[in-house]
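Example 5.3 — PAT complex subunit Asterix
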Amino acid sequence: MAGNNVMDPRRPNRVLRYKPPSTENNPTLEDPTPDYMNLLGMIFSMCGLMLKVSIAMLGLLTSGHAEH
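Solution (predicted structure tokens):
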């Protein structure tokens, strides 16, 4: 494994740290609309799943009641 260090093409003096983009130059980065849309999507999907389960339960209850 010592031979790999000699042929290593990476240059540690050229490594640049990540800096988040500044919001002064690009104010659209602070737009909360996509976050709100994701939240609404999650809420509606949870409501849809609960509605689906409640309809299935209602169907089971009514079919069980009709047999007696």
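Remark. Residues 37 and 43 are 10 Å apart (CA to CA).
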